[in-house]
Design a protein that fits this description.
Elements (H helix, E strand, L loop, with lengths): L13 E4 L12 H10 L5 E5 L7 H8 L1 E5 L4 H15 L4 E4 L13 H4 L8 E3 L10 H6 L3 E3 L3 H20 L1 H9 L17 E4 L3 H12 L5 E4 L7 H5 L5 E2 L3 H7 L2 E4 L13 H5 L5 E5 L8 H10 L2 E6 L10 H4 L4 E3 L11 H18 L8 H6 L2 E3 L7
Parallel strand pairs: 2-3, 2-4, 4-5, 5-6, 7-8, 7-10, 8-9, 10-11, 11-12, 12-13
Antiparallel strand pairs: 1-14
Helix pairs in contact: 2-14, 6-8
InterPro entries: D-isomer_2-hydroxyacid_DH, D-isomer_DH_CS1, D-isomer_DH_NAD-bd, NAD(P)-bd_dom_sf
Keywords: NAD, Oxidoreductase
Family: Belongs to the D-isomer specific 2-hydroxyacid dehydrogenase family.
């Protein structure tokens, strides 16, 4: 914090519950940590899996924070490393993960892994948009924020989704297999994206970009279902406007193509199943770039074999990296090994968002893309404004 800033700027960023705002040596609030850091003229400490994001934010974070790193290893190897780091270095105010899909990385973020960092750590930031492997309830109960890094990976996932959608609508995979079998041209029915009704389930950042890209190439019948109508400028300004379906049943009834871009939650796990597939049009095309468990693969295989689903393009699978044998052998299924965002080149922009989230938190008290502010408020924690950086 600058020397001219007053102590009143050190509001609690995420404090103990409002009914018990006092702090103790075993339960410090972020404001006490910030004041202590200022008094001792020390930078706040942050901890990362991995070393650098290879973006401009690496230099900035080291200007305002004391940065510590751990190697990229799996869950069991990481547990003692975090514990030892806290014992040796003391408290950390923020924690982030920097990795690529080819690196080892803990398969879950929970109390067993992150417990030694609590309650002093007030921000955890994970790479990527999804956070189904993160124990948000535990992080919230510790009075900390969780932030994801959805922007770069979201844009790139949507780009990959567009390729899968167009390929599935044109039947590229069965035509490719036909040529390879020496049959030149297979009798494949195609769909025209200019006239087909394309339904998107989950109009968050990824779904919105998918719809925007489709609109740009002439798709004129885009419908979607989310918890509420989208307020994004893209949804409001598109011509023609995207149609909001109040229920999934309405979308199932109308859509020629269904694209899954929703998060994996208790509500969406197994969403695409025998019952929901039965409500869809005969010959529907299904594309999944969300999470594998959103689809019950046994039921999808059955629908493909009956012709209820004409074709499917899947970037994610129910039991990754295992793929259902019924999907493997079906020529009407395009299989993509969770690479829609082109992970070989997405590391720097995605990890840069992780670091930028922590910088924003240190400078303002709130990260760019917090996930659990509502849960914190429901639990009685105070989420305020204030600087942590020296």
């Amino acid at each position: 914090m600058s020397s001219t800033a007053s102590n009143s700027a050190h509001h609690s960023l995420v404090s103990t519950p409002a009914t018990s705002l006092s702090s103790s040596p075993t339960n410090p609030t972020i404001s006490h940590l910030a004041n202590r850091a200022q008094d001792q003229r020390q930078k706040p400490k942050v901890l990362f899996f991995g070393d650098l994001s290879h973006t401009k934010f690496d230099e900035r974070i080291r200007e305002i924070a004391e940065v510590h790193t751990l190697p990229r290893v799996g869950y069991q190897e990481m547990v003692p490393l975090i514990k030892r780091k806290v014992e040796e270095e003391g408290e950390f105010v923020a924690f982030g993960g920097l990795f690529l899909i080819t690196h080892d990385f803990p398969n879950k973020w929970d109390a067993g892994l992150l417990g030694p960092l609590a309650p002093a750590c007030k921000l955890y930031v994970g790479p990527g948009a999804g956070y189904d492997k993160v124990d948000i309830d535990w992080i919230s109960s510790s009075g900390a924020m969780y932030a994801n890094s959805p922007l770069a990976v979201g844009r790139r996932t949507a780009d990959g989704a567009l390729a899968l959608i167009l390929g599935a609508m044109r039947g590229i995979t069965p035509q490719d297999l036909s040529v390879r079998a020496g049959k030149w041209r297979a009798p494949v029915k195609t769909l025209d994206w200019h006239t087909a009704t394309i339904g998107i389930i989950g109009l968050g950042s990824i779904g919105t970009r998918v719809a925007t890209l489709l609109s740009a190439i002439g798709a004129s019948h885009i419908i979607y279902h989310s918890r509420r109508p989208s307020s994004s400028p893209e949804a409001r300004q598109s011509s023609p406007p995207w149609g909001y379906c109040r229920t999934l049943d309405e979308l199932y009834e109308k859509a020629d193509v269904i694209v899954l871009t929703c998060p994996l939650t208790r509500e969406t796990k197994g969403l695409i199943c025998r019952e929901s597939l039965g409500k869809m049009k005969d010959g529907v095309v299904l594309v999944n770039v969300a999470r594998g468990p959103v689809v019950k693969e046994d039921d999808l295989v059955e629908a493909l074999e009956s012709g209820k689903v004409m074709r499917a393009a899947l970037d994610v699978f129910e039991n990754e990296p295992e793929v259902h044998p019924g999907l493997m052998k079906n020529p009407n299924v395009t299989l993509s090994p969770h690479v829609a965002p082109a992970p070989d080149s997405m590391g720097a922009p995605m990890n840069g968002e992780v670091v930028e989230n922590i910088i924003r938190f240190l400078e303002t008290g709130i990260p760019m893309t917090p996930v659990n502010l509502d849960q914190l408020k429901e639990k009685g924690f105070v989420v305020g404004q204030g600087k942590v950086a020296s």
